[in-house]
Design goal:
Radius of gyration: 18 Å
Order of helices and strands: EEHHEHEHEHEHEEEHEHEHHHEE
Number of strands: 13
Number of helices: 11
Strand order of the largest sheet: 1-7-6-4-5
Bound molecules: oxa(dethia)-CoA
Largest sheet: 5 strands, mixed
Shape: globular
Length: about 325
Amino acid sequence: MRGKIIGTGSFAPAKVLDNNDLANLVDTNDEWIRERTGVVRRHIIEDESVTSMGTAAAEQALKDSGMKAEEIDLIIASTISSNVILPCAACEIQKGIGAVNATCFDLNAACTGFVFAYNTAQAYIAAGIYKNVLVVGVEALSNLLNWEDRGTCILFGDGAGAAVLTAEEGTILPMVTHSDGSRGEALTCNSRHNKDWQEHLEDDSTYLQMHGQEVFKFAVRKVPEVIGEVLEQADISIEEIDLFVLHQANRRIVESVAKKLKQPIEKFPMNMHEYGNTSSASVGILLDELNREGKLKAGQKILLAGFGAGLSWGASLIEW
Ligand code: UT7
């Protein structure tokens, strides 16, 4: 057995901060942010939370799938920025949508989170343990940002993306994942709940911190590599891939991957101009936009790829 995506959904908060708004907060400007990142605006929570955004995206994905909430066997929520530590965000989403028969857990793989959650769903379906799985990538990164650090606050945004998978006949399609904890220093955020929390409370380390160039170089090297590994396992040529749905961290990263893979940039849809980098939500949001715009056709081969903190990276082949 293998999982097939039968519904998608997404949510972005109504409040928008554009690059000019950020230029009022830190020493930056619209031109720099657009040119270096491709980001123009990002959506930021006000009354929303990881729970409410995840629930809204999940509701939409369920509706799109035509499935009832009670039919969902498993909910995996990928997040690093939940307002909820206990119970987990997946349980909160379960409560919100009424998926009373689901088993629920969260997964932390940062910007690779949606891909890791999708792969975990596939593994459970292939093993015959669960049939219908809801995957949600959801982040309120604005809670983790130091709004005085122009190296990070200009990049990220909040939102949620979701997909419903159901079991179908067929062998599981290739998925390749990697982690390298020895390079974790490149992207960190200390918990505000450490036992020495008082020392850390006003400390920069409790905000998201990133060695931008190091992460950039890692991404442009590892993403083409892991896509190559998936293609080799699938025994197909790169020309057979219709779309590459990559984590939306930076337009220059996506362009560099396209160039390294010698593929036209048109095969690499992007939406970071609207949302910024939404970490584990980005792949789900983009997939949902493409789906709603009717750009995904039955039988198309699509490569999902994520990369980020851990360090972690991975890619999965899907057939629409
Ligand atoms: O999702 C998880 C994975 N994360 C990523 O993939 C992020 C990967 N990294 C990046 O996207 C890029 O490294 C950044 C967008 C974060 C930074 O771009 P960069 O081209 O690597 O810039 P830089 O850090 O090398 O800085 C270049 C210059 C510096 O000035 P000098 O030293 O050349 O005078 C910075 O001080 O740009 C300056 N700078 C800024 N200027 C205006 C850095 N940030 C800003 C800013 N506005 N926000």
